[in-house]
Design a protein that fits this description.
By secondary structure, the protein is mainly alpha-helical. Helix content is 59%, strand content 5%. It is built from 23 helices and six strands. Strands 1, 2, 3, 4, 5 and 6 form a six-stranded antiparallel sheet that branches. It comes from Asanoa iriomotensis. This is Integrase.
């Protein structure tokens, strides 16, 4: 991709570089984006906070020394190209601290703790300065830096998606305008919101809730709704009124939803009159805001579509290892954090590890993370190529579109797309998101070994973070770690993609999880070799 000489002046609607950046922001912030186009990264600021926190968990024996050492090493590779850290002494100091280690009572860890506010403050301003000074980063890298920074500051994906969409639709808006706005969003402080969560059913609420200061009976809840000009108040039997500090209203609503999940978990311990279904009305209302918001957060994108395609969604009369794993991982899509991470990791470990993995210097159970990452990395090119094969629609049919219309199998369609990109055929796709995908997948077609190695390394980092968070939950007894939300955001779609491939392989060819992982490892090593597989058959 060619980069402009003056990127900040490029209009979002017409300049290819600026359009690429905003298209990827919209991909990253949308809760329904397919897994191949989602955001797989966390921000440098959060990654360093996680490193600082990891020392304490290692001292408490929730994390192993090997896990922390691996993470600090991988973090150095992540921070290396990050222009938001500047090009001078700060970057060199951070690298030195990570190399020396961050023992819990060490001077290095105390130094990092003191540096964290400096790293986060002005981070996007430094990226803007880097664009002016050059060299110009790829649009993909810039979009990831913006998105991860804003999300990890606590802004909700829903609020950020509306923000990016409105900017993209405003005539004449430039990339410089977008970056200036992003810097402003990053500087926003927390706001305290008054959030009403009404309930359609709350068993024995007179005895169990009436004494709580946050509880409003039906009459008082109706009065609150009237005072806040709610035109169509819900039918309710009382409500909790929470004071929640958050970056935006959507984030406050989702925080209220997390509180409801905790209430529902507690309600399962009741019996007798206190037992029963604790059911919110499904919406929350925020003082000063006209429209209600969903009480349930969006699903995290754990999609195992092979269960639908193979018509086995309801075939549970017999159970096997895959069925057990899917059951264990089910909370990952919408459940509370503790069962989500612990169940997901248990499912991964049950399928992709074995007792012998811990012998002869092997990494132990964490190898299951690397095996899942290899399977998902092999799945990614074909998923993107297949999607693009349905988006290539030239005004006048060309040879590629005619060929695609004659192909019935997605494997054949993806292969046709790979050949076309290799031969330099210009694809006729309309959306900026599709154009950005074409650039990414064209790089993979041109250099599959290198590009897939990079993707695999990213996925390994994501799934290993899930393993660390599971250990913090199980051995540390908390879900309050700094990286929990980011872990669920990044890992969930990849786990779903991996499980989709495991289910497909078992149902179609009888290939088991460990055998599929071995096939993926071989394919990633041999891709590009005359004896290796083609890009669309890495798991075949």
């Amino acid at each position: 991709m060619t980069t402009p000489s003056a990127p900040l002046s490029g209009a979002l609607a017409t300049d290819p570089y600026a359009s690429h950046v905003v298209a990827r922001l919209l991909d990253f912030f949308a809760d329904t984006t397919p897994w191949p186009r989602r955001l797989w990264d966390v921000s440098s600021g959060l990654a360093l906070r996680e490193a600082h926190e990891a020392a304490r968990w290692q001292a408490n024996q929730a994390l192993s020394p090997g896990a922390v050492t691996w993470y600090l090493s991988s973090l150095q590779r992540q921070l290396g190209p990050d222009r938001g850290l500047g090009d001078g002494k700060l970057r060199r100091l951070l690298m030195d601290l990570l190399k020396r280690g961050l023992a819990v009572n060490s001077a290095e860890r105390r130094q990092l703790g003191q540096l964290l506010p400096t790293i986060v403050t002005g981070y996007l301003d430094r990226w803007r300065d880097a664009l002016l000074a050059g060299p110009i980063p790829s649009a993909e890298r810039l979009a990831r830096a913006i998105a991860t920074h804003l999300l990890d500051l606590g802004h909700s994906s829903g609020h950020l998606h509306r923000w990016a969409r409105e900017l993209s639709q405003k005539p004449g808006t430039t990339l410089g305008d977008l970056l200036a706005e992003a810097c402003g969003v990053a500087r926003r402080g927390d706001v305290t919101y008054e959030v009403l969560v009404p309930f359609a059913s709350l068993p024995n609420h007179v005895q169990l809730a009436a004494h709580l200061p946050e509880w409003l009976d039906a009459t008082r809840a109706a009065h609150w709704l009237a005072m806040n000009n709610v035109a169509k108040p819900p039918r309710q039997y009382g409500a909790f009124l929470y004071s929640i500090t958050a970056k935006d209203p959507t984030a406050a609503a989702r925080a209220a939803g997390a509180l409801v999940q905790r209430l529902q978990a507690r309600a399962t311990y009741a019996r007798g009159e206190a037992a029963g279904r604790l059911e919110p009305v499904g919406k929350v209302w925020i003082a000063g805001h006209d429209h209600p918001l969903p009480v349930s957060p969006p699903a995290r994108g754990v999609d195992v579509l092979s269960l639908v395609r193979e018509k086995t969604m309801y075939a549970i009369s017999t159970k096997g290892a895959l069925d057990d794993a899917l059951e264990m991982a089910a909370p990952l899509n919408a459940g509370p954090a503790a069962p989500a991470v612990s169940g997901a990791w248990s499912a991964i470990e049950s399928l992709l590890s074995q007792a012998s993995d811990a012998g002869e210097g092997r990494p132990g159970r964490v190898v299951a993370a690397d095996r899942l990452a290899a399977i998902v990395a092999c799945s990614w090119p074909r998923a993107e190529l297949t999607a693009l094969s349905y988006r290539h629609r030239p005004e006048v049919p060309d040879a590629l579109s005619v060929e695609l219309d004659s192909l019935k199998k997605n494997l054949d369609r993806s292969r046709a797309m790979a050949v076309a990109l290799h031969d330099g055929v210009a694809l006729a796709v309309n959306s900026p998101s599709d154009n950005a995908a074409v650039q990414r997948i064209a790089a993979v077609v041109a250099n599959p070994y290198k590009e897939l190695a990079d993707v695999r390394a990213v996925f390994e980092g994501v799934v290993r973070r899930l393993y660390r968070q599971r250990n913090i939950v199980v051995h540390g007894g908390t879900t309050a770690s700094v990286a929990m939300d980011a872990t669920l955001r990044t890992a969930s779609p990849l786990v779903g993609a991996g499980f989709d491939r495991l289910v497909h392989a078992k149902l179609q060819t009888g290939v088991g999880p460990l055998e599929l992982a071995a096939r993926a490892a071989n394919s990633l090593e041999l891709i590009g070799d005359p004896l290796g597989p083609d890009l669309c058959s890495l798991l075949e």
